[in-house]
Write a structure and sequence with these properties.
Blueprint lengths: L5 E2 L5 E2 L3 H15 L16 H14 L19 H13 L2 H8 L3 H7 L2 H5 L11 H23 L1
Antiparallel strand pairs: 1-2
């Protein structure tokens, strides 16, 4: 079976990956209906992950969804949590401090450790209490999940 080209409405054609796009569009539909989740595109370089993500983002934006974009750096030297730092940093730049404080909640200090720009918007932010590395990582992930959930709820 050969996939036929599909226009994304922006003038470019997208060919193939129907099964993958169907799964991602199903996840998007769930998210738009308030049933959140996480989808991860993974694989070897050059297989079309970025193109699939661009198509999904275009669809999400056409439905009025706010999107975040992060990517992995394949060479050595990328900071820890780089795929998370990038979209959070952009959101921080675009959002006022009061809103950020509300959306970050109690996890702001943990997020501020990996995205220092947050401390510029929330200058009274304290340092997180010291924990063992595994516990600190878990607390950071929980803080990011809470933040993303709060952002999503504020968009509803």
């Amino acid at each position: 079976m050969v996939d036929s080209p599909v226009s994304n409405g922006a003038g470019s054609l997208f060919v193939g990956r129907r099964r993958e796009m169907a799964a991602l569009e199903g996840a998007l539909d769930d998210a738009m209906a308030g049933r959140g989740g996480l989808a991860m595109l993974a694989g070897e370089p050059g297989i079309g992950k970025t193109r699939i993500a661009q198509e999904l983002v275009a669809r999400a934006r056409s439905l009025g969804a706010q999107t975040f974009w992060g990517w992995c750096y394949e060479q050595e030297g990328a900071p820890p949590y780089w795929p998370w730092v990038q979209p959070i940093r952009l959101y921080i730049q675009q959002t006022d401090g009061e809103t950020l404080g509300r959306q970050m909640g109690r996890g702001a200090a943990e997020i501020g450790d990996i995205v220092p720009e947050l401390r510029d918007k929330l200058p009274g932010l304290e340092d997180p209490s010291p924990l063992e590395p595994e516990q600190a990582r878990f607390r950071l992930f929980e803080s990011i999940v809470t933040f993303l959930k709060n952002v999503a709820e504020s968009q509803a």
